[in-house]
Amino acid sequence: MRNSRKLVIYKHKNKPGWYFDHEKYPDQQKAWEAFRSGMIEAFSIAEAGRWDEIDDIEALRHGPALRVK
């Protein structure tokens, strides 16, 4: 079974709108901004060789498959 929730934010397949953490973000734009910032932070941390710190990035916390990749 595939689970898109591992992607943190995605377009719903069978209904309008986006999936994202509605408790954290007021809309999909804010969710995308947080996700992008989290990825940039992750790349910076990885470049410094501090791999374990990537798990502490809040915006990526619900996307373990993304962190592993």
Plain-language structure description:
By secondary structure, the protein is mainly alpha-helical. Helices cover 36% and strands 6% of the residues. It has two helices and two strands, in the order ββαα. It has helices at 28-47, 64-68; strands spanning 10-11, 18-19. The two termini are 19 Å apart. The mean pLDDT is 83.
Question: How are the SSEs ordered, and which strands pair?
Answer:
Blueprint: E1 10-11, E2 18-19, H1 28-47, H2 64-68
Antiparallel strand pairs: 1-2
Q: Which sequence of SSEs, written as H and E, runs from N to C?
A: EEHH
Q: How many distinct beta strands?
A: 2
The averaged pLDDT comes out at: 83
Helix percent reads 25-40%
Largest β sheet strand count, sense and barrel closure: 2 strands, antiparallel
Question: What structural keywords apply?
Answer:
69 residues; mainly alpha; elongated; 36% helix; two-stranded antiparallel ribbon
